[in-house]
Design a protein that fits this description.
221 residues; mainly alpha; Arp2/3 complex 21 kDa subunit ARPC3; two-stranded antiparallel ribbon; 2 strands
Length: 221
Amino acid sequence: MKNKKLATIVAVGLMAALCFVGNYLQIKIPNGVLITRIHFGNSMCLLAGLLFGPLAGGLASGIGAGLYDLLDPVYIISAPFTFLSKFAMGFICGYLAKREKRLGSEPAHIAVSAAVGQVVYIVLYVARTYVVQRLAYDSAVQTAITASATNLLTSTVNAIIAVAVSVPLYFALLKPLKATYFRDIISERDSHERKWYVNLAIAAVFLVISALAVWLYIANK
C-alpha cells in the first residue's frame, strides 16, 4: 500500500509536468480583450485520467495547467478556475474510463470517456467566458456571445486534437506501464456505483467552488 501511494504521487508529478509542457505547444489567437489558444495541454490531461484514474488524473491535470497559468501574466488570475476546470476534465475522463465497459469495444469506451471529459471542460470554459465578459468587462450580450463562440470553436479544435492524441497514446503506453512501478495504479475497471445523490452532492460542491473562482477572477479585474 505504501508503494502504491508513492507511485501515485510520482504519477501525479510526472503527468502534471507533461500537462504543463503541453501548454507551451500552442498557437495563441487574440479574441477581442481575451486570448484563446490551440494547444496540446488537454491531450496530456486526458492521458493522465485514462492511465491513472480520476483522482490522480484530475490532480495532474489541474496542477499542470494551473501552474502554466500562474507563470503567464496573461492568465495568472485565471489559475484557480483553470485548476478546477482541468481537474474536472481529468477526473471525469478517468472516472468513466474506469467504469465497466458499456460500449462494444475497448477503444470506443476509452474514446467516449476522453470525449466526455473534454465536453465537461468546454462547457465550464465557455460558461466562464460569457460570465467574465458580461460581469468583468461589462460587455454587451452580443459581444459576450461572440467571445464565447470563438472560444467554443478553438476549444472544439483542442478537444479533437486532445482525443486524437490521448487515446492512441493510452493504448501505446498501457502495456509497457503495466510492467513498471506504476502497474498497481494503472486504471482498473471499477463496477462500484455511487448513489445518485452522492454524485449530485459532488457536482454541487464543484460548481460552487467554480463559481467562487470566477468571482475571484472578476473581483481582481
